[in-house]
Amino acid sequence: MKNNGLSLRIRVNEIFKSVQGETTYAGIPCVFVRLTGCNLRCSYCDTTYAYKEGREMTLRTIIKKIQGYKCKNICITGGEPLLQKEVVNLIIYLKIMKYRIFVETNGSLDINILPKNVIRILDIKCPDSGMNEKMDWKNIERLSGNDEIKFIISSKKDYEWAKRITKKYILRDRVQVVFGVAHGKLMPKSLAGWILKDKLDVRLQLQLHKIIWSEKLRGV
After folding, report:
1. Binding site residues for [4Fe-4S] cluster, as ranges?
2. Where are the alpha helices (H) located in 3-155, listed in sequence order?
């Protein structure tokens, strides 16, 4: 591990330990590294504070803070973490240290910049997000068996669209597929009912951290 690489800087919004609230890994203890900046403006975004808020930190400082939490699961999120290319260096160091790494990305940027064996959580933007035209559809071909796809659904229209995309790209043969509820925009029982009625082989996702804690509370 070269010390000069550890002096690279990334703009970080917050680092905290919580339980993973989403994906098929929901419920596991995890250290979250939320990076500053996003190139999308989704209608339901619950982390608008990460658009600009944050401070530059060296990789050395970030890793030291992560080590203090004594947890081997790391989720790098945003914002959009792939906007900062130095994130690749951070991941390489963390992999050397035997951390299990999840990267949550909005699907608009090439996920192949990430090192192998990182668990990539790819968000496919539904129409009600207002951002589905920003998707890089080539990312579907870049997925590996360790990755997951997430649809955040705000309406029946979004659900039908997500169902068509899942079928069109044969997503269930590629990766785990998660259908999540846009908090406050759709009742979970509605989405659950549609999934059961249509016999879809997908996982229903609720935002666990918003059930446990206040939906407006940060750092959880």
Report:
1. 38, 42, 45
2. 3-6, 59-68, 87-96, 139-142
Look at the pTM and tell me if it is higher than 0.85. Answer: yes
**Are the beta carbons of 20 and 30 closer than 8 angstroms?**
yes
Q: Residue 203: helix, strand or coil by DSSP? A: strand
Alpha helices in the chain (DSSP H): 3-6, 59-68, 87-96, 139-142, 156-168, 188-197, 208-212
- Position 212 scores a pLDDT of 74
Where is the binding site for Mg(2+), in residues?
Answer: 47
Phi and psi torsions of 43, nearest 5°: -65, -30
The set of residues, in sequence order, having a beta carbon less than 8 Å from that of 10 and lying 6+ positions away, is 35, 56, 57, 59, 62, 84, 86, 87, 90
Q: pLDDT, tens digit, for every residue of 111-158?
A: 999 998 999 999 999 999 999 999 999 999 999 999 999 999 999 999
CATH topology of domain 3-212: TIM Barrel (3.20.20)
Q: Binding site: what residues are annotated?
A: 19-21, 34, 38, 42, 44-47, 77, 79
Q: 121 — phi, psi (to 5°)?
A: -105, 105
Backbone phi and psi for residue 176, each to the nearest 5 degrees, phi listed first: -70, 135
Q: What is the mean pLDDT of residues 3-8?
A: 83
Tell me the binding residues for S-adenosyl-L-methionine.
Answer: 44-46, 79
